[in-house]
């Protein structure tokens, strides 16, 4: 596994890195740091079951019966929110927050994270973060639900480092991946994101406004440059959205929900932002259920839940558990 190789060849161990002022972190504790109610609601067909705390959900396939395979297997249509991915935004390149603050530092040149002010001196400023994408099928490797065929199999592993991706630090190179960004670089497209912010704060974002990241601004460019830094939590949530969208555009992340997802994942180069919820796991796990919920759909404002989640030095890097919408056909 990639994580085992990183630990074997890292120039310093996790304990030393955790004590460094520029690279700190903590492995997410599945008992204390993950809000398990985010899995809900569980659905059979269009009927939602066990929805404690009135968790938000998107539409499920209407029929409770389904079939998959060349020789069709009849089964039940099940839906839930699967904790399967982990994203972190860091200031120091190769700092693995979710591995306890492991400082990989392989000697490769990579842009440092930074916060800066604009030349106009108007008090506004931007930022740059590196980001990491982990595979984290926590329900499977904890064996929390035995013999359930809908769970992704695997273990906690590092899947993507933006430090080795030349597109992440260059706006022009990023156009190779998202040339459609030029279509939305105008006042009308930017203003439309206000409606996406309102929709995401009340429920889920508007899928037709796929270039918007809700209250965090624009999804483009899909890199680490943010021209409007208004707090670490807000910017880190935007990094989580951008990196997830980038993984979809590169076909590293796939769709798992809806009628098309019943028999397995499918290519989804334009991410459906309604299919993800985030839950902050570092520096301060967001396990307090505000209005019955501790996970937030992509694009929701951070004003209500992000206050007090950032503090100097050890609390300026961020990690999120990603809950993705999953529909599958459980055969008899």
What does this structure look like?
It is a single chain. The chain is α+β, with helices and mostly antiparallel strands. The chain has one domain (2-331). The chain has 6 helices and 14 strands. The strands form 3 sheets. Strands 1, 2, 3, 4, 9, 10, 12, 13 and 14 form a 9-stranded antiparallel sheet that branches. A 3-stranded antiparallel sheet has the order 7-8-11, with no helix packed on it. A two-stranded antiparallel ribbon has the order 5-6. Strand 1 (42-44) and strand 2 form a beta hairpin. It is globular. The two termini are 34 Å apart. The relative contact order is 0.20.
Question: Keywords for this structure?
Answer:
332 residues, alpha+beta, 6 helices, disordered N terminus
